[in-house]
Amino acid sequence: MIWEREITVEGKNFRVTISDEYEALRSALAVGRAVIGLWDRSRTDQCLSPASYLVESFADITPELLERVVRRKDGLPWLITDTRRLKIREFTAADADKIPREPDGGRDGAVFCSRLSLENYIRHQYEFYEYGIWAVCDRNSKAIVGKAGIFNLDISADEEINSFIKKNDTPLELGYHIFTPYRRQGYAKEACQAILTYAASSITDRIYARVKEENLASVRLLESLGFQLAYRIRSESASPRCLYEWNC
User: Fold this and answer.
1) Residue 106, Ramachandran bin (φ over 0: left; ψ between -120 and 50: alpha; else beta)
2) Best CA proximity match to 33, nearest among 54, 58, 57, 6
3) Percent of residues, the chain, with pLDDT higher than 70
4) For the residues of 126-179, what is the DSSP string, one character each?
5) What beta strand segments (E) does the chain contain?
6) Residue 168 above 90 pLDDT?
7) How far apart are CA 237 and CA 12, in angstroms?
8) What sign does the CA torsion over 191, 195, 197, 198 have?
9) 31, 117, 150, 193: most buried by Cβ count inside 10 Å?
10) Rounded distance, CA 65 to CA 129, Å?
11) By C-alpha distance, which of 25, 218, 199, 15 is closest to 107?
C-alpha cells in the first residue's frame, strides 16, 4: 500500500511517501522524495530499510513529523522550540561562518567554527540522536546569539560520577554558551528554560549539569532553572566540581 502526503516547508511544497512496501519506499527515495515506513509488527518478512522513520499507524503521522522528515531529507534544520525573543534550531554548515571565535567557546567550541566539522556534527549527532547543541537565534535580527542544548554526559573518565548515576543508562547534560556581545540580557535562562521544557516532553525527564563550584553565575542560573545539587566532586589539584540534577 502507498499513501502520499503533501506539506509546505519554508514556502516550498514537498510530497512524502508512506508505505509498508520496500519497493515503493525505494522508488520514492530514488526520485528525491522523503519517505516514511509503515511498520506492521505482526509481519516477519517486512523490510523498510529505505525509510529512516517508521510509524505503526496513520495516527502517528503528524504535521510535525512530516515536516521533520522533509527537513532531515533535504538538509534543512529542525526547528526545536522558541520563546518570546529567541528561536532555537539545529545548526547548519553555513552557520560556521557566523560563530565568533571566543577564548571561552564552551563545550566543543571548535566544532562549530569549521564547516567541515559542523557538517560532521550535524550528520552524526542530529541524525543519530535527534538532539545536541543547537543554535540560539534572535527572533527579529536572526543573529545567532549563542548555542545551547543537551548531549550525552561523558562519565567514562570520572569514576565518582559514574558510580553516582550508574542507574541512568543514557544520562544527558545541559550545555549553553551565550556569545560575548549578547550576555547579561537573560538569554541563557530563556533558552535553557525552553530547552528543558522541550526535553521533558520529547526526550527525557532527567537532565544533569556540571559546573565548577566557583562559577557562581552558572550555579545561580542552574538553581533558578530548578536544578538541585546532587553531588560534589572534590580534587586536591582543582576547585570542586558540582553535579546538578533536574527532574521534571
Assistant:
1) left
2) 6
3) 90
4) IHHHS-SEEEEEETTT--EEEEEEEEE---TT-HHHHHHTTT-SS-EEEEEEE-
5) 2-9, 12-19, 34-38, 54-55, 79-82, 86-89, 133-138, 144-152, 172-178, 206-212, 228-233, 241-247
6) no
7) 57
8) positive
9) 150
10) 16
11) 218
pLDDT in tens, 79-99: 999 999 999 999 999 999 998
Cβ atoms of 85 and 190 within 8 Å: the answer is yes
- The two beta strands, 206-212 and 228-233, are unpaired
**All three cell numbers of 40:** 506492521
Q: Cβ distance 13 to 6 under 8 Å? A: yes
pTM of the predicted protein model: 0.88
Walk me through the domains of the chain, giving residue ranges and CATH numbers.
2-74 (no CATH), 79-204 (3.40.630.30)
Round to whole Å and give the CA distance between 213 and 105.
Answer: 19
Dist CA 77 CA 192 (whole Å): 19
